[in-house]
């Protein structure tokens, strides 16, 4: 490393010396000056006329960069420099408005997310030719009402789906979007409708012909019998699986799913849910499908009742017994019994689990 580069990087180097180094022939030295937090404004002014993008972006990112430098560099021909300016909160409204019309979509996207972007600029970007930009605008909480209303009738479903997540969208527009011709938009309205207490539309969407909409109903955190009970017998297996995997599931609903005609639903219920009710365990432990029974033996934070492990340890299916043998949370007596299993893989798994318990004293 040259002495000049060391000086340019040092925070102890005087401002006058940094100004001189900003005109050094070595671009590495110039870049180091641009990145030095103590670089004077005069040095940044000098470097702002540089032709190397990395140096210009370092100047833009500097804490001492002036609005005048940012305005000048916002017109730079290379989009990465303009994008760096669009990212800077010191860029004024005039500069950001200019960049909101930049030919590069990534620059315009950066403007959307600049905290200093004004409602007026968002109004401009709401008419952007790129649907991704319009969707980004729809998410902004300070998006002006005229822009939200315009985006609510956007020709692109992704944009209409984005605008429903804005808490300032007027009620009448949200309700209209809940009946949108595109199922993906209707699905996006479910959470917002729930938060705003629009129960009549939620009941209607619980009968929606598209499973994506009904899936969103199943994800609502609070169990609502009027909405969720019918999903227990939904024609879509995927919807019933989503219900089975909910954080909160009433015991009565769990019991219905334990008798579901789909092997996949019962398997997810057995393998993924903790602390299943006793009545549900009694159904699943005798399930005709070994994969479901094996699911009860999967290691969980809250293991099944000891009697379940004991019953499964006597199962006729080798895979079920082996799943019990591999579970370190199974009762020790059950594991010891499985060390004598006629199936070598089961017996070996039980011995391995016991060694693990002895070693870690679980």
Describe the structure.
It is a single chain. By secondary structure, the protein is mainly alpha-helical. The chain has helices at 3-9, 15-21, 27-35, 41-47, 53-61, 67-73, 79-87, 93-99, 105-112, 119-125, 131-139, 145-151, 157-163, 171-177, 183-195, 199-205, 211-219, 225-228, 237-244, 251-258, 263-272, 278-284, 290-296, 306-312, 318-325, 332-338, 344-360. The model has no long low-confidence stretch (mean pLDDT 94).
- DSSP E strands, number: 0
The ordered H/E elements are HHHHHHHHHHHHHHHHHHHHHHHHHHH
Give the integer mean of the pLDDT values. Answer: 94
Q: What is the general shape?
A: flat
End-to-end Cα distance, whole Å, is: 56 Å
Which stretches of 5+ consecutive residues score pLDDT under 50?
Answer: none
Rg value: 31 Å
Percent strand equals under 5%
Query: Which bin fits the share of residues in helices?
Result: 55-70%
Query: From the helix content, strand content and strand pairing, which structural class follows?
Result: mainly alpha
Helix count? 27
Main sheet characteristics: none
Topology, element by element:
Layout: H1 3-9, H2 15-21, H3 27-35, H4 41-47, H5 53-61, H6 67-73, H7 79-87, H8 93-99, H9 105-112, H10 119-125, H11 131-139, H12 145-151, H13 157-163, H14 171-177, H15 183-195, H16 199-205, H17 211-219, H18 225-228, H19 237-244, H20 251-258, H21 263-272, H22 278-284, H23 290-296, H24 306-312, H25 318-325, H26 332-338, H27 344-360
Helix pairs in contact: 1-3, 2-4, 3-5, 5-7, 7-9, 9-11, 11-13, 13-15, 15-16, 15-17, 17-19, 19-21, 20-22, 21-23, 23-25, 25-27, 26-27
């Amino acid at each position: 490393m040259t002495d000049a580069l060391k000086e340019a990087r040092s925070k102890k180097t005087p401002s006058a010396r940094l100004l001189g180094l900003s005109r050094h022939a070595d671009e590495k030295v110039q870049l180091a000056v641009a990145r030095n937090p103590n670089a004077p404004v005069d040095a940044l002014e000098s470097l702002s006329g540089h032709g190397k993008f990395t140096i210009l972006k370092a100047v833009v990112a500097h804490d001492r960069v002036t609005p005048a430098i940012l305005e000048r560099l916002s017109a730079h021909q290379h989009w990465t420099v303009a994008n760096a300016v669009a990212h800077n909160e010191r860029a004024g409204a005039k500069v950001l408005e200019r960049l909101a019309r930049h030919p590069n979509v990534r620059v315009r996207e950066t403007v959307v997310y600049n905290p200093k972007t004004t409602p007026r600029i968002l109004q401009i970007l709401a008419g952007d030719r790129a649907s991704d930009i319009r969707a980004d605008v729809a998410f902004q909480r300070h998006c002006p009402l005229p822009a939200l209303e315009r985006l609510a009738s956007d020709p692109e479903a992704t944009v209409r789906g984005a605008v429903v997540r804005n808490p300032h969208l007027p009620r009448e527009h949200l309700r209209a979007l809940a009946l949108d011709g595109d199922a993906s938009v209707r699905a996006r309205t479910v959470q917002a409708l729930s938060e705003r207490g629009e129960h009549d539309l939620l009941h209607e969407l619980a009968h929606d012909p598209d499973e994506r909409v009904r899936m969103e109903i199943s994800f609502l955190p609070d169990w609502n019998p009027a909405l969720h009970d019918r999903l227990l017998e939904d024609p879509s297996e995927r919807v019933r699986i989503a219900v089975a995997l909910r954080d909160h599931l009433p015991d009565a609903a769990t019991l219905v799913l334990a008798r579901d005609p789909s092997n996949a639903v019962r398997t997810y219920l057995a393998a993924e849910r903790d602390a299943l009710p006793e009545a549900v365990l009694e159904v699943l432990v005798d399930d005709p499908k070994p994969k479901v029974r094996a699911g009860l033996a999967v290691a969980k934070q809250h293991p099944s009742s000891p009697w379940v492990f004991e019953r499964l340890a006597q199962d006729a299916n080798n895979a079920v017994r082996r799943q019990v043998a591999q579970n370190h949370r199974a009762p020790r007596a059950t594991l010891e019994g499985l060390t004598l299993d006629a199936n070598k893989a089961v017996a070996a798994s039980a011995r391995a689990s016991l060694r693990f318990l002895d070693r870690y004293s679980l």
